[in-house]
Amino acid sequence: MNWVPKFDVNVEVSMKALGEDGLELWIERLAKIQKEYSCNCTLSVKS
Please, which domain of life does this record's source organism belong to (predicted)? Predict the structure, then answer.
């Protein structure tokens, strides 16, 4: 039996820290992580 650990990746960033293209870049990064590791990824943006 193969045991595969499940985990969550939660990222919280502020709007100021994102800059112009920051949101799109974080979405792409998390999508790659989610695909590669089969984990749950969430991105929270704070004002």
Answer: Bacteria
Q: Please give the pLDDT value at position 1.
A: 61
Separation between Cα atoms, residue 21 and residue 43, nearest integer Å: 15
* Ramachandran region, residue 19 (left: φ > 0; alpha: ψ -120 to 50; beta: rest): left
In the chain, domain spans: 8-46
- The predicted model scores a pTM of 0.74
Contact 39, 33 (CB under 8 A): yes
Beta-bridge partner residues of 13: 45
Question: What is residue 32's predicted lDDT score, i.e. its pLDDT?
Answer: 95
